[in-house]
Amino acid sequence: MTVLRHVPALLLLLVHLACASGAPSPVPSAPAATPATLATPSATTPARSAPTASPAPSAGPSAMVSAAPAAAPAPPDSPLKGLEQLHAAMPQDGTVMYLLAYFKGEAGDRDAVYQWLDALARSSWDLGLDDSDFKMVAAEPRYQDLARTLNGRVTTVADAPVAFRLAERDLIPEGIAYDSKRKELLLGSLKKRKIIRIRPGGGVSEVIAPAAGGMGRVLGLRVDPGRDVLWVAADKTKDGQPPAPRAIYRFALANGALLGSYALPDGGRHLLNDLAVTGDGTVFVTDSEGGGVFRLKPGATALEPFIPAGSMVYPNGIALDAAGRTLYVADAAGIWSVDPESGAHRRLQPSPGVTIGGIDGLSMDGTDFIAVQNMGSSPRLARMTLDAAAGRVTAVKVLASKHPEFEIPTTAALVGAEAYVIANSQLRSKDETGQYLPPERLKEPVILRVRVR
Fold first, then answer.
1. Quick count: other Cβ atoms within 10 Å of Cβ 163?
2. Is residue 423 within 8 Å of residue 408, measured between CB atoms?
3. 306 and 340 Cβ atoms separated by less than 8 Å
4. Domain ranges of the chain
5. Between residues 352 and 62, which one has the greater pLDDT?
6. For all residues of the chain together, what is the average pLDDT?
7. What tens digit of pLDDT does each residue of 243-263 get?
8. Homologous superfamily of 35-67+157-451 in CATH?
9. What SS3 class is residue 97?
10. Mean pLDDT, residues 124-132 taken together
């Protein structure tokens, strides 16, 4: 899910922004399909068998910080102080400047908003400005001049074809995965608490029924092909729906049967968002609102804290290299490399001119990241070159940006040399009471097909 759409959680997490050398104490550990509507394949999408997903690279981290320090550092006095400390450590990072401008606006400090937006304009920031993030000043000529400057840097790559257009307008999809055995895409619904399959020809049906096993609002999906299972991260229900826990679920892909569920205890701030699965079946899941990562070992009956709460700033996308030696976690400010055995982690550094903040979905293709970035005015899909030995992201190639179908893209599923991207999640399409709009006021969900190499 997107970053600046969850301000209360960020206000708590940003006090730990300067945690590159420490983290607070861990959070406690937790103890048949019906038909759906059809997807319309794009006329430009040829009929073909989908190739097997491409393997990821082998990489090893170095000079990492401890995942569990003996004593937690005292948090800064305010979220803004934490951001300022992170800026001192990363003075050229545009993502931190953007967040500083945003939170200064939330605090009502107009002069400081412009201070940080002016600094952003002097940086290499290339994701533009989202007017809704700066409502305090958005109507002012000075802001509009800055927005024109920054939005003018955005690269336009808008030729990716529509692979599928779904008839179910109120699906509100957030997570997508690829079932290589059946050559089908799997798509989760936040609103309807279900998972559908999309066949290569466009046929659509439910693979996991609504609220199966008590499942809540569906976020991340991850296929474990060796075990033929689907892992699902789901959040608590809202809007008067029957209650559901924050939990991850394991389903059999062959028949949709529930094989297990693993919930966090009720209470506290948590949002289980995205998942990664190792070769031995260990599952890692990001906790966006808690600011950490949980782990489920093979045979375990409960999630356990792996990276302590508050260590990261809204951790979201997560990916594992092919060798299983390094886990990568995207948070609001960038990407972390993590030792999947010890939990030791360090923040990757971007080379000058490289923007790696605001990532939602994260995958690996070869030695590179494939990332959906949705901060700023122009969400994009990007290929990011990783120098694992140096702990640095050295280059970004924009694969899709300013696409007419983009409306908060969230995640992508890699299928060979292509990524299938949720183009228009419509996460903001709500009325004044916070309810999703009725179907007649929503758009048909779109899946783009983007060449990644």
1. 25
2. no
3. no
4. 35-67+157-451
5. 352
6. 86
7. 899 999 999 999 999 999 999
8. TolB, C-terminal domain (2.120.10.30)
9. helix
10. 95
